[in-house]
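ugh ok fine here u go
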Amino acid sequence: IQRRWYTFQAQYLRDQAKAADAQSLASALTKFVMLSQGSMLMAVGMLFTLLEILPPTAGAFLIIAKLLGNRAVGPLMQLISSWRQVVMARDAYTRLDEFLGKVPEPEQRMKMPPPQGLLTVENAAARAPGTKRTVVMDVTFTLPPGQVMAVIGPSGSGKSSLARLLVGLTAPILGTVRLDGVDIASWDKSELGAHLGYLPQDVELFDGTIAQNIARFGTINEEAMAAAVKLAGLQPLIDELPQGLNTEIGDDGATLSGGQRQRVGLARAVYGEPKLVVLDEPNSSLDQQGEADLQQALQDLRQLGCTVIVITHREQLLAAVNTILVLEEGRPLMYGARDKVLAEMASRKAKPGTQSQEAA
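structure:
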């Protein structure tokens, strides 16, 4: 790393020296032009006077012309000496123009009624962010309110990409994702956000209090806050903190452990009793007690009529789900009732050649 830094530093110094040389040369040329044009103006004026092209009283005007010429070249010298700021301003304008060009003007959309939680996915496909590689293909399922579905599969099978697709963070390149029959991609996100809960695999918290993070930095509803804390099993942590929910957690929750950050993220996802909750590896940093609290939270969400999708690698959470979707290389491999899918998976494990034969 040190050698790499020295390489970049040496290149930077070389480029800086070239830039300084170019600026010095331009400044020297400008000074030369400024001085020479004044002298040339005086010489030409005197020549015209001797040739009687100009009257003998034109000397005073020649001095004034020389002063005006110096004044005219002065801004050019200042521009050259400040050329770095000019280039930085130009680059900043270019970046801002490109950024604004990628963000279309918000459209006026019809206000939608609060959803009930019916999730319908039809032949959905999505690409990885910033690439043209398709990571989710031909995903189709229907999940009525109050149902909990687990999405399982090997690493890199597109589970997290599917989670972002379901909450509208990415738009499908094919197919549709509908909530109560309305395309999530066309729903006003500021209106839809209150009805969605999302716990990403990498929990991101903001500099502020626990209460502010749970309430998504909106107006804090005490009843909704208490319900979210209870659902996430966060009360023991709150009781240990000197300022409770008003404890500052620092940038990205720096004062919290991984499991505590995940619990706060879960509380944020269920705050306000959303109708659709997507949890991406919600138990990756939880201990045994955290696993038990999470299973209880899934059951409570189901009783509240919330539609829940949980992405997991651990079989403990499968006891709390109704259906299972198995992904492999971005495509659905199996989908159906929990017991049926688990039995099919056990059958395939008992016959390792079956899956390869079917693929062939």
